[in-house]
Amino acid sequence: MQLSDFNFDLPDELIARYPLPERSASRLLHIDATGQHHDHQFTDIIDLLNEGDLLVLNDTKVMKARLKGKRATGGAIEILVERMQDRHIAHCHIKSSNSPKAGASLFVGEDNVEVTVQGRHENLYIVEFSQPILDVLDRYGKLPIPPYFNREAEDIDTERYQTVFNDPTKLASVAAPTASLHFDEQLLENLKQKGITTAFVTLHVGAGTFLPVRTDHIENHIMHSEWCDVPQSTVEQIRTVKARGNQVISVGTTATRAIESAAQAHQGQLAAWTGDTQIFIYPGYQFCVIDRLITNFHLPESTLLMLVSALSSKDHILNAYQHAVAEKYRFFSYGDAMLIDQYQAV
């Protein structure tokens, strides 16, 4: 399967660089089980789900992971904390005019917090902070909003680039689970009143989610690693819902990858699981758990576009995207949403 099979033309003006005033005010494009698409508002999700269904949400929280600083020589650097190993050691991306060597000292913040480069692990730098990492990020960090926003993080992002249900104890992502940004407290309450329940998984989103696929044959692509946790309580909720004939709706590709990773770790049978996942879902993948997916519109030739194409089909997805462009839907993290049903061939 070729990378170019997942390309489409997107006018720049359709990239949503700021959120709408209200979280749930987005539009919703529904691709049904036959592959047909239908226009809705996001609040219509209440009518498109059934009593007894289950929404699975990712409760991670985004760190203020981007730090600006300098080298000992005064040259500017930028550090993006990808993953914390412990309170002082992290795996990071570093932007600098020259790649810093092991032993190099970098400095961030007004009080020149020292960050020492220890070495490399794959494409990441291993660094040691002289002060607790989360304290440094809280004082000097900026939210790592997506590169396609083409702007610096602003005050509005502090609230709107986080979900309303994030768990503060799970502060470790460098990108938001953006499908969940459409849910506000009132909409969640309305879903609850209809008898639609929620369950949580955790996947700490890494910066690799924005990296392009660099191989022409997508089967040769190697996914970045991300930590996730699927707790026993969520497994039990999913089993109960499935047993009574209701559906499991994953909110976002991160929740999907977490749940499907837990199933793959147990020969296709869902069970509690914690660990690093590099699961790559593309057309031909057989879903073990997920019935439907709420997601945003994704970048051309991205692994996320490949994932949604696996649930419906590449042709259905690209046809829906062509419709979305024609109807001027808003794309990417702050954009509009989709509800995708698993394709049922007639």
Q: What fraction strand?
A: 25-35%
**Can you identify the CATH class of the largest domain?**
Alpha Beta
CATH topology of the largest domain: QueA-like
**Overall pLDDT:** 96
- Low-pLDDT parts are none
Return the structural class.
Answer: alpha/beta
CATH superfamily placement of the largest domain:
QueA-like
* H/E element order: EEHEEEEEEEEHHEHEEHEHEEHHE
Report strand order across the widest sheet: 2-1-17-16-14-3-12-13-15
CATH architecture of the largest domain: 3-Layer(aba) Sandwich
C-alpha-based Rg, rounded: 20 Å
Main sheet attributes: strand count, strand direction, barrel closure: 9 strands, mixed
Secondary structure tally: strands: 17
Domains (count): 2
User: What is the approximate shape?
Assistant: globular
Distance between the termini: 24 Å
What percentage of residues falls in helices of 4 or more residues?
A: 10-25%
Number of helices: 8
Please summarize what this structure is.
By secondary structure, the chain is an alpha/beta fold. The protein has helices spanning 45-48, 133-140, 155-160, 185-194, 232-243, 253-264, 303-311, 314-326; strands spanning 27-31, 37-41, 54-58, 61-62, 66-71, 76-84, 89-96, 105-108, 113-121, 124-129, 171-173, 197-203, 226-230, 248-251, 273-277, 292-296, 337-341. Helix 7 packs across helix 8 (314-326).
